[in-house]
Structure formats: C-alpha cells, structure tokens
Amino acid sequence: MSERKKVRKSSRLSSKSHDEDTKSLSNEAPKHILSNPIILAGAGIAAVGLVGWIIKQTFFNNKGRYSSLKASVSCVPLASGHRCLVKRVIAGDNSCLFNAVGYLMHKNLTRASRLRAAVAAEVQKNPEYYSTAFLGMPNDEYCRWIQQPHNWGGAIELSIFSKMYRVELAAWNVETCTCHVFGEDQKYSRRAQLVYNGTHYDALVISDGATSSATTDDTLIDPKSRPEGLDAIRAAKRLVRLMHTSSKFQGGEKRRLRCSAEGCGLKFYSESAAKVHANKTGHDHFEEF
Description:
By secondary structure, this protein is of the alpha+beta class. The protein has three domains: about 5-60; about 75-250, Cathepsin B, Chain A (Alpha-Beta Complex); about 255-289, no CATH class.
C-alpha cells in the first residue's frame, strides 16, 4: 500500500472513531456542551473531559438516604446525606467523661477505672508540671482522688487524654454553644468529639443513623479533611445549638430537675441547685419533671 493510501485510510479510521465517540457522548452530555466546537475539537480530549464532568455531576447530585432526615438533639445528617452525626448516650454513673473517652478511643464503655489509673500515673510522673497550682490540690492527693469512682473528670483529664492518645478532643458545651479543643495546638491529625451539658458528657460519633448499630460508628475524624471532617464539625455545632434551644436547656433557673442516681430522687427547682447537689454527691444525671 502506498504512503498516500495509508494516510487516507488512517484519516477515515480517525474520523469514524471521532464520530462514534461524539455519538456516545451525545447520549450523556448536555446539548449546549456538545454544540461547542472548542470542546469537541478533539474526540480524545473531549471524551476524557466530558466523562470526568459527567462523573462529577453524578457524584454531587447523588443525595444520600439521610438527606431528608430532620435534625434532632440526638442525630444530625451530614451535608452529603450519606451518614449522620449521632450522640451516643453514656451512663450517668459519675464516670461519664472517662467512659465517653473509652468509647471514642476503644469502643468500650467499661474502661473508666483503667483510664482513671492512667491519668493518675501520668500526673504522678510529672509533679513539676502537674503542681498544686495546676491541680487545685497536692499531686499525690490528686492521684488518689481521681481514682475514686464517684469523682468527676473535666478539663484536666481531657488535656491528659489528648496527650496520651495524640488526638484532639473537642468538648462542646451545650450551655454556651462553644467548643474547646484540647490538643488543637499540637497539629494532631485525628479528633474525637464530646458534648457536655453542665453535669454530663456524651460521645459524638459518625454513624449510619440514630437507631443504627454501634458497630457502624466512626469515633474519630480528620478535622481538616474536606468535606467529611468539616461536615462532622458543622453537624456537631448544629446538634449543640438544637440541644441549647430545646426546652431542656432554656431557662436554667426555672427548670425542675430530679436526681436520677439510684436511691436519691431529690428534686430541685433550679439548675444551680442541681449543680450544687451534683458537686457534693457526685451524682451527675438529672431529668426534668
């Protein structure tokens, strides 16, 4: 075959391939794009570009099954609609902070005594840092105190757990709708979230819905990832605001609260009175009546 015939044959094959690609793409892409001669100037380039565009549009238009789910004080759908931020309720047994951290870090709700001991060990080996001024009591006294099951944990313990696990611990405060992130200045790549209502801690996780099995829970997020991490943080903020504006968290000084601790049941007619009782007794779970 002469060189000229080879060129003509190659040209016919290229033209045929171009027509087939354009015809295939015309079934998928919008007409206003197909009518643009610049986009369709090269079949190969156009195919790659248009297929990428189609995939991207399909992804962003594919709403998840939770998109229409109404946000509540226990569950908020993520922006994608594919998963939800869920509040996992921790037992009110005076060790809610420790059990919340145990769940977030180990998927275990019975590690409180072990985590109390770990905190005591960390404090004991760093007496200069964990001084009386820092702890509010002598180092050795604190180490004994924190291991008592009726004593509450708080900011000191969260800061220790953040260092221990090399993870950010974001504690959302329902009363103020603010969040304090322990370890935020350490550039950790993982974050766990908790919610605190003034007397009790619960864990916040990413899951397949409020009624889904805990086996689907993801307890750690990358706070800087887009969109997953940022969506989880926004969802937590929304959940906390819903909790704050709900009847349970309005007019704190007018609330009627009953202590839920076994054998107690004392009634209080203001949130401040309930807190005084909680601090004296270690009872950390109340219900409205």
